[in-house]
Every structure is written in structure tokens, then in C-alpha cells.
Amino acid sequence: MHIYCPDLLSDFDSAVEARANWVEDHHAEIRKVLKNRAADGEFAALGRHMTETAEMLESVRVRLSDLIQQRYPLGTPSD
């Protein structure tokens, strides 16, 4: 992949690293928020950051899927 799509590979690495860091950094905080029923604002902020990292992963997944289908077409793509 590094030869054919270095930008996509870099984005993939960044997305996975961002998600892993988010999970690692917020694991204890999420448990605390859920256990103590923290303020809605705190919970919403965690949700926004979680969504951002998930969207990064989804974007890379879609781009990688498109690349594979373009380079190695095997018929009609499924959703």
C-alpha cells in the first residue's frame, strides 16, 4: 500500500492511532462518568471526541474500499 497509496496509508495509520489513543486516554474517564452519572456536558464532550475518531476510521475504510474496488474489480460492489 505504501507504493500505491502512501497518503491513504498515512491517513489509516493516523486514524487508528487517534482512535487507540482516545480509547486509552478516556477508558478510565468513561467508566467514572458512567459510574457517577457525570454532567451532561462532560458526557457530550466525550461523545464528540469518540465520534470524531470513529468518523476518521470510517473515512479511511471507505477510501480503502474504493481503492480496492477500482484496482481489483470483481463485480458489483455491495454497500
What does this structure look like?
The chain has 79 residues and is mainly alpha-helical. It has one domain: Helix Hairpins (Orthogonal Bundle), CATH 1.10.287. It is built from two helices and no strands. The longest helix is centred in the C-terminal third of the chain and has 32 residues. The chain is elongated and about 50 Å long. The model has no long low-confidence stretch (mean pLDDT 83).
What key attributes describe this structure?
79 residues, mainly alpha, 80% helix, 0% strand, elongated
Outline the secondary-structure elements.
Elements lengths: L5 H31 L3 H32 L8
Helix pairs in contact: 1-2
What's the total count of β strands? Answer: 0
Percent helix = over 70%
Shape: elongated
The average pLDDT is 83
Would you identify the regions where 5 or more consecutive residues have pLDDT less than 50? none
The CATH architecture is Orthogonal Bundle
Strand content: under 5%
Structural class: mainly alpha
Order of helices and strands: HH
For the biggest sheet, the summary is:
none
Distance between the termini: 23 Å
The CATH topology label is Helix Hairpins
Count of DSSP H/I helices: 2
Question: How is this structure best summarized?
Answer:
This protein has 79 residues and is mainly alpha-helical. Helices cover 80% and strands 0% of the residues. 0% of the residues are buried.
